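Pipeline run #58 for the internal structure catalog. This entry was flagged by the ingest filter as a single-chain record with no existing model, so it goes straight to prediction. Upstream metadata was stripped on purpose; only the residue string is passed forward. Reviewer on rotation: M.T. Logging verbosity set to normal.
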Amino acid sequence: MRGITITRVAHREDLRLLVMLRWIAVVGQVITIAVVDRLMGIPLPLQWMLTVVAVLVLWNLLSLLRWRADRPVSGLELFAGLMLDVLALTAQLYLSGGAGNPFVSIFLLQVILGAVLLDVRWAGLLAVATALAFVGLAFFNRPLDLPSLHDGRFSPHMIGMFLCFVLTAGLLLIFLGRIAANQRERDAKLAELKQRAAEEDHVVRTGLLTAGAAHELGTPLATLSVIVNDWSRLDAFRQDPDTRAELETMKTQLDRCKAIVSGILQSSGELRGEGTVKTTVRGFLDDVVEEWRGLRAPGQLVYINRFKPDLDIVSDVALKQVVTNLLDNALEAPAEQVAIFASRLDDQLEIVVRDNGPGFDADVLKRFGQPYVSTKAKTGGGLGLFLVVNVVRKLGGTVTAANPVEGGAVVTLRLPLAAFGAAL
């Protein structure tokens, strides 16, 4: 289904090329008619020939409106346009000598364009139509009073054949090159879709493994919690202030671990519906940054929230985790200072996270957002940014990374406010 969609999008660019080609054909026909009728003195049925030109102009205007409609174009629509071009060329040739007209070779241009733009079925029908038109023009045409074909090397017929060759060769060189570029772009988009599908599959598998690990961690955490509570009631531990303080610290850290496990299960859908919170954009960001500050205790944190006007939103754990991962990545750079700036760009939220660390390696920037691409010397590094990029992309946003000239690293996140459930 995705391949069909990409093809129809590429056909839209092909339609634009056909519109450009048709404008050139209209101008060429007008110039040729004027030269033959006025300069060469060969009478032509101007009224009928200009009527055909007017039909081409009208069709091209309709095609231009169709292209601007910003909808995918089907192969049938391209076939219809090329068939109209064949019929118009057949009419012009009928009115100007039939198959003996030197410009009859332009039929080959239509066949070649059909072979490149259409599938085999439609291209075959177009080739059959041009062949039938050629045969028909050999028997039915309006003859012209042209000089003999043997009236010298530079007879009007020979000049017409030369101009037809130059015109056809030039158009093929220009437009087949453009069509080939469109097809390369389509192939690149298909490759990108395959890459995204592979990454999304990796995200799903990572989420399943994470949820499974969270379930498995629940039992040992509960056991440790029971043991610590038992220890806290023992007289030997209760009478020692230092030991009692350490036990309280252990309780706090165990509670934090259980909260993290619960958050993972919420994100994976175990507790869907309980993780959403009604708040505002500014309030959401303020709460996330404040909670992160308390948990991570960064050396120096600069937080500037310029999001105005504020909006009511519905946030959840996934959106919170996106921002937290960005801050974690900056803190682990390592960096002495982490700065986060929030602002509004029309209907988007922009979050910029900067740090004064060593910056991203060139290879990391080149493959930013791919799994296990990280400068951190630990197993599984790079998954945080990988998950951030995929979550944001699924929500219709973008994440970019760069190394500023002044040093450090900067990650820019842009997310449509609709992803928060905001009423715009």
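catalog note: The longest strand covers residues 337-345.
catalog note: The chain is about 65% helix and 10% strand.
status: ready for reviewer M.T.
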